[in-house]
Protein: Alpha/beta hydrolase
Amino acid sequence: MKNLLKLLFFTACIGLFTGCEKQDEIVAPDALLKKTTIVNHEAPGLDHERFVTMKETGLNIHYRIIGKGPIDMVFIPGWTNPHTVYSKQFDYFRDKARCIYIDLPGTGWSDAPSPATPIKPDATGPQYTMELMAEAMYTVIKKEGIHKFVGVGFSMGPKVLAMFERQNPGMMYKLIVIDGWLNPWPTDPEERTALIQNNNDTYNFMLTWDSNIKSVLVKNLIPDFLSGPDAEELKEWGSYFADFPTDIMANTGYYVRDEYVNSIVNWDYPKLCFFSSPLNEEKTNLADLVFPNNTIIIYEGGGHVIQWMFHDDMNMEIWNFVKDRPGKKY
Structure:
């Protein structure tokens, strides 16, 4: 059992830290409810709830816009998370910025078709790549007419934002990282071969996960020792994970570990990085490499979802970081 827990935690760390054309038109939620995976839909203080269809794939992407202001902020959730992982940010920023919270493909109210296997060259069918996630993000941003924005990424979120930066350089001007990483691949051939095999083995292992194994993993990320109203809300929120589609979970987790996804990005603008545990010298050097021009703040003792457990302090830190927008308003 100890070995199983270690492997579960290792997998989680890698995977989690980790003009209106016809096809772009917004569709009514009622038309999509029967064919989407609904995860924690209830959340307070909504302004606008919208869907938009991706051109190439036809996937319907759900997102929420809350608030208005001179700054645009785009919030990208983590691995398997619906946008409600940012519930504790909804009300704080509503009178300060226009905030867009996106359900990435396969999560929340966005379409979630069953994927093909990623480890067979001849496989056909949907693949939950970070390229797909970034394209979904761009579809939403294009629809809302956003030209410049602050990117916010939790866990897997920075990997999606890194892919977006590669595809659309110059649109983000500040980045907020919440307990997430890029993990550049080794250059040694033997280490690379071992990593590829490990990724394949991890994918196959994840396909075997049942609700009991998923519940163990959740407790690594949202520990039982957390207490208080916020902690109880977070534990209830995290219960969605036990029933999350295993094939989508494994497919997304596989692509989270992709070499290109974890490669260095040329983004030199300011970054505010929050982490859930102190960084040793190796981790500090990695943060400086993958998130250059950073300010690092540590919040210990709250598990992985620190933007929930430390929302009072973190929201203020985020606002102090983003409130001085350079240049004119778009």
